[in-house]
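Narrative of accomplishments. A recurring question from our advisory board has been how the design workflow behaves on a single, concrete structure rather than in aggregate. To address it, we present the structure tokens for one chain from the evaluation set, followed by the sequence designed for it. No filtering or post-editing was applied between the two.
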């Protein structure tokens, strides 16, 4: 393999060693996204004449035009032309922006797609780092890590509010298209699953098992993405898992998944159920889009998404929960997930499925409204099941929402005990 060594023209050190470093709000000069401003990242395959190789461009105000501790919108557009580039590779390459940004000392990245969140430290700014530097790092890393599929690469960083909003529409259409392709597949329709060990850089025991019905918990690696990643790099972090013997169909336990998880977790996790959160659930690293937690008082579960800052019926906010659930452990009763797993027909089927959901933040619930209604219908719960799920307007403590669940006749109250 030919590996291109590229110099990165930025005044900060760039290396995998810096991944996992935090930038606290006191140490930050400027931030983008994180529900504070409009932000997104998009990797897109383009035609040859649409991409000017090496062009790294900032469109809008730069770092010195904001005050210390300030915020800006940011659209990161990575345009790729390559003879061997496929549309199927976009999602996998896009996920790399997370890692590549975190390689920069004084640069921090969280999330993906249009819920990303980026910070530049005061120290980096002091050293002369500018927003364009993000593009320089991405250009150099993409070029050196994927020489076989990238012939031409250009990066656009957009900090102009109107322009970000305009391009966000293009990004959303792309995300939707990727999600639609995935919807046509199911766990029964494929022969292999894939693992993902990309997050072991900061959660050494963590293994995502990615299946058509269950996206990686970051929400950024679908089964198709994992398949594409394996095609791009057969020795990389996504390896096919031959399922072998089915140990428990209801819980979603296969010999092959157990063995792989055991191997990749260094022997720490020996059993994993893909369709349960109560018994040998999948491990959680730290990038989950949402966290599920049991609410014993209601015999059900709540799901809180990363964007939600408020209190939840288990007495913890998302970030407090994240602290106790993450790190690569199995925590029965709690689990980090990708959002689309909620409306998968395998969603904790061993624990009672979608009928267990008793609370979600209003905004998150509305995001999934159509799919929840559809799934509820399929499960014979009726379309009005959607209205039986409480949200923060009903209450944020178990005793506040219980009367609501009783009044609405929520099915979880009559189900088998969760524990
Ligand atoms: Fe891979 Fe899972 Fe990390 Fe996503 S959360 S990058 S699927 S290991
Ligand atoms: Zn992770």
């Amino acid at each position: 393999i030919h590996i291109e060594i590229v110099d990165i023209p930025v005044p900060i050190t760039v290396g995998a060693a810096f991944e996992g470093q935090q930038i606290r709000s006191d140490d930050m000069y400027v931030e983008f996204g994180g529900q504070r401003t409009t932000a997104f990242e998009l990797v897109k395959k383009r035609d040859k004449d649409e991409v000017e190789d090496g062009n790294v461009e900032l469109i809008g105000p730069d770092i010195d035009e904001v005050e210390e501790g300030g915020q800006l919108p940011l659209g990161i557009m990575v345009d790729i032309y390559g003879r061997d580039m496929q549309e199927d590779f976009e999602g996998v390459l896009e996920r790399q922006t997370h890692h590549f940004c975190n390689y920069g000392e004084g640069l921090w990245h969280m999330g993906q797609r249009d819920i990303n969140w980026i910070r530049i430290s005061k120290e980096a700014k002091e050293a002369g780092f500018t927003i364009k530097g993000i593009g320089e790092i991405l250009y150099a890393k993409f070029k050196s890590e994927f020489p076989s599929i990238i012939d031409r690469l250009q990066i656009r960083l957009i900090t102009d509010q109107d322009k970000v909003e305009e391009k966000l529409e293009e990004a959303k259409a792309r995300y939707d298209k990727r999600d639609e392709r995935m919807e046509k597949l199911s766990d029964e329709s494929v022969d292999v699953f894939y693992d993902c060990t990309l997050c072991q850089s900061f959660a050494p025991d963590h293994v995502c098992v990615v299946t058509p019905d269950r996206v990686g918990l970051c929400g950024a690696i679908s089964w198709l993405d994992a398949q594409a990643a394996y095609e791009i790099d057969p020795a990389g972090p996504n390896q096919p898992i031959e399922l072998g013997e089915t140990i428990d169909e209801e819980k979603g336990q296969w010999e092959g998944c157990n063995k792989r998880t055991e191997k990749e977790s260094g022997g720490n996790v020996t059993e994993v159920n893909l369709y349960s959160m109560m018994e040998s659930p999948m491990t959680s690293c730290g990038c989950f889009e949402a966290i599920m937690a049991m609410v014993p008082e209601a015999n059900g579960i709540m799901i809180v998404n990363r964007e939600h800052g408020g209190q939840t019926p288990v007495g913890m906010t998302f970030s407090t929960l994240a602290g106790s659930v993450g790190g690569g452990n199995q925590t029965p009763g709690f689990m980090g997930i990708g959002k689309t797993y909620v409306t998968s027909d395998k969603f904790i089927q061993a624990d009672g499925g979608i009928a267990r959901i008793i609370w979600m933040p209003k905004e998150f619930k509305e995001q999934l409204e159509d799919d929840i209604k559809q799934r509820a219908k399929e499960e014979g719960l009726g379309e009005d099941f959607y209205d039986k799920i409480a949200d923060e307007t009903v209450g944020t403590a178990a005793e506040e929402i219980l009367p609501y669940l009783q009044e609405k006749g929520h099915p979880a109250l009559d189900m088998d005990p969760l524990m």
